Amino acid sequence: MFDRVLVERLAAETVTKGGIMIPEKSQAKVLQATVVAVGPGSTSKDGKVTPVCVKVGDKVLLPEYGGTKVILEDKDFYNWSDESFEEMDSTLAVQQYIQQNIRSDCSNIEKIMEPPEGQDEGVWKYEHLRQFCLELNGLAVKLQNECHPDTCTQMTATEQWIFLCAAHKTPKECPAIDYTRHTLDGAACLLNSNKYFPSRVSIKESSVAKLGSVCRRIYRIFSHAYFHHRQIFDKYENETFLCHRFTRFVMKYNLMSKDNLIVPILEEEVQSATAGESDA
Ligand SMILES: [Zn+2]
Ligand SMILES: [Zn+2]
């Protein structure tokens, strides 16, 4: 997306030429990487796209710090066969289980939200939120075509709300598309952080508390899309049921207050339900 570049770090030497295994701590940090994907470029206020100057396959040097670490599973989202929960590899089982249910029917929200027996609730919430962020990136890519910094100069939903971007030292008004990108990056950083989420098998209670604030922030992407880019929102929603799923998720686990759920998905459901009753 945007002007971002995905690189794969070159593997560290783990064995000396003589065949001796090097302990992990003594392995030098490799600061070389290969570019594996490049975004189309950044869009300036006047709508001009500045392309990225590296291309796929380029070898690049990395700064020692910075960047967002992404862990890609060797199993592709769409590429694994269905398995029962017990058969799945333990560290990725929950993620795989969630994705499998989404893939089989993304409108079956009850089934997607229902944890397998004995599932740790913190991990269950955490993995769902990771999945929402992943899919929200898909919505952000669609929004890019229409949501430009010169037309959507602020992150707004209804007239009532202007959201400040919390990705900066002092929260500020970022254009909607920048807000979207900064917020998804921030969420990915937090969810991948070793400090708050060192394990995907159990999650500290104090870190579970962070999930609510991530939910509130990323929800604004739905509300901006709904109120300002309705066609894009509807098309994506028809394909993924993402906002429906998210709304049900935050309500089930009390992660957001109902007043903040401003995309009128729930009312629609209530109205159509009552309309159905009166027809009968
Ligand atoms: Zn916009
Ligand atoms: Zn920002």
Automatic annotation (TrEMBL):
Residues that coordinate or bind Zn(2+): C147, C152, H224, H229
Lineage: superkingdom: Eukaryota
Pfam families documented for this protein: Cpn10 (PF00166), Mob1_phocein (PF03637)
CDD domains assigned to the protein according to its UniProt record, in alphabetical order: cpn10
Recorded topology in the membrane: Peripheral membrane protein
InterPro entries: Chaperonin_GroES (IPR020818), Chaperonin_GroES_sf (IPR037124), GroES-like_sf (IPR011032), MOB_kinase_act_fam (IPR005301), MOB_kinase_act_sf (IPR036703)
This protein's UniProt keywords: Chaperone, Metal-binding, Zinc
Cellular location(s): Golgi apparatus, Golgi stack membrane
Listed GO CC annotations: Golgi cisterna membrane; mitochondrion
Principal location listed in the UniProt entry: Golgi
GO function terms (MF aspect): ATP binding; metal ion binding; protein folding chaperone
Role summary: Co-chaperonin implicated in mitochondrial protein import and macromolecular assembly. Together with Hsp60, facilitates the correct folding of imported proteins. May also prevent misfolding and promote the refolding and proper assembly of unfolded polypeptides generated under stress conditions in the mitochondrial matrix. The functional units of these chaperonins consist of heptameric rings of the large subunit Hsp60, which function as a back-to-back double ring. Part of the striatin-interacting phosphatase and kinase (STRIPAK) complexes. STRIPAK complexes have critical roles in protein (de)phosphorylation and are regulators of multiple signaling pathways including Hippo, MAPK, nuclear receptor and cytoskeleton remodeling. Different types of STRIPAK complexes are involved in a variety of biological processes such as cell growth, differentiation, apoptosis, metabolism and immune regulation.
Stated family: Belongs to the GroES chaperonin family. Belongs to the MOB1/phocein family.
Oligomer and partners: Homoheptamer arranged in a ring structure. 2 heptameric Hsp10 rings interact with a Hsp60 tetradecamer in the structure of a back-to-back double heptameric ring to form the symmetrical football complex.
PANTHER family associated with the record: MPS ONE BINDER KINASE ACTIVATOR-LIKE MOB (PTHR22599)
Name the UniProt record assigns to this protein: 10 kDa heat shock protein, mitochondrial
